[in-house]
Each structure stands twice: as structure tokens, then as C-alpha cells.
Specification:
alpha+beta, 5-stranded antiparallel β-sheet, 31% helix, globular
Length: 119
Amino acid sequence: MNYKLVLNTKSESSNIFYNTITFDTFKINVIDRYRGVMSRNPILCESILKVRTLDDQLMKTREGNSRVKLKGQDLETYKNLMDILNSYNYKNKLIKQKEADEDYVHFVIRIYIENYQIA
């Protein structure tokens, strides 16, 4: 499946970052909220996943919600993946970026499959 990954989009002076994975028929938005000083060492405290159609209609989860909040082990795994994507090694191409991107996308797809009704 083809995808386009856009990482760390944010509004100015905000502690919220947006990551988007766009597929052929839908897109997944991940909203990350950080605490602490953003210019030093921000700490990821919350991540929310929303799935939209390409014309920006929110899709509902199996429980009828429009979002999934990562908790527990999923949040810890997500933090580890984001640490890799925000690392010096990733930004300076000292590690294989494609593999790091694929690990991130596969994790987000797993969350999607667990929580959304796939037609």
C-alpha cells in the first residue's frame, strides 16, 4: 500500500504536533501533545489518532468515537518510535530512514486495525 508520511507539523509557539499518513483512500492524523519547554527537551504526554476520508470526513471507531487515545504500552511504544524519528541519527541519515518510517506506519496501522471497522 502506498503512503505519504508528513511528520511534525505544528503551529507557531504551540506544544501540539501533527503527523499525517495519507493512503490511497484515507488518511490518519496523529496529534501529539508535549509538555515542558519546547526548545529544550519536550516530553510527549498524549497522542490521539483520528482517521479521515480524503475529503476530511471523520471515520468512527467501533465504539462510535471519532478518535483513539493511546494509553499504556501503546503510548510507550509510540514514544520510542517518535524518539527515533526525532533523533539526530534519523535527521542526518545515519540510520535507514525508510525502515524507521515503516516501523512508525506499521504501528499506526495496527492501532487503526484494532479500533476501526474496516469495510
